[in-house]
């Protein structure tokens, strides 16, 4: 995981010092996320929520390269069952992508990368345990920008599961 964050930092630093960065601009966005589980993820979880940060490096007035990361937690369907094996899941996506403005306010975005998934569960003694894995992730979506306000909807998929995500935030 350290290598992945080091690689992302090097990419940001390289773009930040290039002519591309100086000419087209840079935006940083912070957002709240809502997630509706689909596929096999839906069998254990009803809803997810989290926070993400997205850096956008403008190529020209209509397109940008994006880097997105954050954390999205999925809550189990039933809190009352103390014998429930699945307790919660935390997703940490690290994605790079391309954003294209279709109109002055509407955009399409496609991202790909890796999601680190940490699943929590109760063992036979009732102790909380966790297991981590990482998966290739893809996330096509559409969104709207109104000044600094940014809202988008996407499908984010990995390892035979995924979710519909709603991202609402502000770009600086």
Overview of the structural elements:
The chain is mostly beta strands. It has a single domain (2-171), classed as Porin, CATH 2.40.160.20. It contains two helices and eight strands; from the N terminus they run ααββββββββ. It has an eight-stranded antiparallel barrel. A hairpin with a 2-residue loop joins strand 6 (128-146) and strand 7 (149-158). The longest helix has 15 residues, at 2-16. It is elongated, with a radius of gyration of 18 Å.
Query: How many domains, as an integer?
Result: 1
How many helices? The count is 2
Strand order of the largest sheet: 1-2-3-4-5-6-7-8
CATH fold field value: Porin
Strand coverage percent: over 45%
Summarize the entry for a quick read.
The chain has 172 residues and is mainly β. It has 2 helices and 8 strands; from the N terminus they run H-H-E-E-E-E-E-E-E-E.
Helices, strands, pairings?
Layout: H1 2-16, H2 19-24, E1 26-39, E2 45-58, E3 63-76, E4 86-101, E5 106-122, E6 128-146, E7 149-158, E8 161-171
Antiparallel strand pairs: 1-2, 1-8, 2-3, 3-4, 4-5, 5-6, 6-7, 7-8
